[in-house]
Amino acid sequence: GPPPGVEVHAVDVDPFRYVSLPAMVKFVSPLPLAYWPSRAMHRKLGALRTSGHWDAVIAYAAPVAQYALSLPIPRILEVDAALSYQMRERFMQGGHLAARLRALVSWRKAYWYESFLVRRFSAATVVSGRESGCVRSMVSTAPCRVEVIPNGVDCTHNRPGLAERQPHRLVYNGALSYDANYDAMVYFLSEIYPLIKRDIPDVSLTITGSTTGVDLNGLALDDTVTLTGYVNDVRIPVSEAAVCVVPLRRGGGTRLKILEAMALGTPVVATSKGAEGLDVVDGKDLLIADTPASFAEKTAWLIRDIEFQRYLAANARMVVETRYDWGQIGRQFVRLVEETVDTHRNSESQR
Predict the structure, then answer these.
(1) Alpha helices per DSSP H over 128-210
(2) What CA–CA distance (Å, rounded) separates 241 from 205?
(3) Widest pairwise Cα distance in the chain
(4) Which of 210, 247, 278, 319 has the fewest CB neighbours in a 10 Å radius?
(5) pLDDT by residue (tens digit) across 90-111?
(6) Strands of 184-308, DSSP E
(7) pTM
């Protein structure tokens, strides 16, 4: 159950209820489907609004921000990963004309609506400096404070030595039901993994997370690849691996999968996109590789070099302890909320 002082009011709504709608409906919709409102959520917030005194409301991610607008109290929005930022990047990456057109339309729709939302909040947080510029442009002249507060990891719960290391095992700790993870594994299995297997024939790969609704036929799977499905404790397969691979090519935010692996003592090989938003050093805290040949070469080298594995793991653990532990990040966020509430109260008292 929830900790003392916390009440949970569940709303029986599937957040992915519109995903299967026809592409044409998504294209002509004035809003991205993620922002289509839920009457049940509006009713729930309406009931809570009159049930007590609230000092502030915190909305996690832009799709739920609309429900906070009816509350006449300080509002803080955790943007997490702005959809408009992701769609802009997808548009800039190119591709065939239809894909670029879809990305352009999604980008502009998301930017318009996210701007409408953010300007109505007292403060907004993003998890990486790369996205702060995008959100600050949305704020424009509105009195919304924008802060970078990174994602983090529980360094006590996630610690090295939880499982015996398997020397030739790789892990990808990202559910394939998320399109950026699926794309990463399409890329890895078709272009990188064959090169690693040629160099290290007994290498294996574990992919964690639910595969419900995932088109597995689009992945170059073989008997060296294990799909765990949902696991109760993802720390174990990550701790068992010699290397955590993060070959992401799209997406936004901060890579929790990398922070978890670093905290667990599993060295990481990632693309630049995979490590985006993290304050880490290539060759010291992890390895960065942006071509299939380079990614395969660095992964195989790391599998063989046990001493270098230990070097990266020790440095990475130091990084998460000093910069990404939830304790210090939580204190930073609490300070932002308290300052936002104080500013609101001072403003009200001067009227």
Answers:
(1) 129-139, 179-187, 193-199
(2) 9
(3) 73
(4) 210
(5) 888 777 888 888 888 888 998 9
(6) 204-208, 225-229, 241-246, 268-270, 287-288
(7) 0.81
